[in-house]
Amino acid sequence: MRMKKGNLAIETPVKETGAIKRRKGSKKLYVDFYYFGHRITRSTELDDTPANERKVRAFLNRITERIENGTFKFAEAFPGSSDQEKAYFTQKEGREYRPEPHQVLFGDYAKEWMQTIYPTFGSPTKRNDYKEALESRILPHFQNFTFYQLTSIELFKFTESLVRQKGKDKGKPLSTARKVNLLIPFRAIWNDACDHYRWILKSPFDNLKKKLPKTEKKEHTVIRLHDWLKFLDNLEDHYLPIAEMMILTGMIPSELGGLKRDDIEGDYINVRSSYVLGEEKKSLKTAFRKRQIVITQAIRERLQTILDRSSFPYVFVMDDGKRFNSSRFSKLWQKAVLKAGIPYVTSYSARHSFAAWSLIIGVNPLRLVNLMGHASKQMVYEAYGNYVEGLEDDAEEMLDYFGRDFVLPRKSKSPVPFRDSTGDSLRSSALTTGTI
User: Does residue 286 come out as left (phi exceeding 0), alpha (psi in the -120 to 50 range) or beta?
Assistant: First the structure.
């Protein structure tokens, strides 16, 4: 019975809110109460004993008191609840929900990240690399780790366990460079999680690279001229002029796939787009890759053969008439390499060979910078300046292959590299009229 003196409740019994529940088939006690109009039922994981019942009742009473004075925090009282539930009630309480690192699983956040952040990446190559690394390597190992458990030691143990999953070297350890590349999407997710939840944590990626064994950087092989000719003898006829265009211009497969007939203006090829993994890219690897290539007589001959094959708006096509596909072309390239019995070279080696051959036959390095689409002469020397034994012996044959008009090109008739720079450009060449 409540007794009053004046306006004060002198003797007020403790107000009990909620109930202690028992469930059929369970020996545990459950709490059951309402919060912001929502019914909350949770197992206490305590056995159904009188002593535990008193503990649970005391817990419910504390909840009631804190709810009434505005200090109750659902996320702290029920840390095992879902992030969505904790965020909902924290917002209702007028606070911002920020789970601690030990409360968030890497796999759960990575799944959300793939739905929100991942699609914003413009590069299809980047998206493909990130997805492959996450799905095949990172998530199978770390999906049940909390962010608190992601330490530099765990990452190092992970990198040490990485081996090749297929091919002739299956089971052999990955190179350090490959390990570092696999960690790039991992680091991106870590950084975004710390930013999202405002965590101040020491990054487990700091100094990790220093712990990894150093491996020699794999250089792209520069092709000797006699090996190149053997390769061409074993490449399917349809792709001969395409491969030659690569070594005569330094263009890579993705740039070939993006080249349109409209990009051939006057005596110039304008490289301004690429085609990667089935997606058109208006921007190239760097701003410097957007460049202009003078059409020499050697290039003109191969280009005419290619243009005569179809009226397709894109210059390069596969033997079935479809748009140039770099993945299919790479397989055909490797098939020809094996048949020729020459040292292993990839299609990208054609670009490196273009640079090395150009330097051997005396092309001005500053001009080569523009032809390659690089930012500086230093980059050309660092990437392609390695000495190749015997390469200078091929100099005369290389010069004949490229043509002397490649080494000493005529002066450009137009100082404007691209039509869209001013809205006008010379289009008088027979290339654009079909009489190259």
Answer: beta
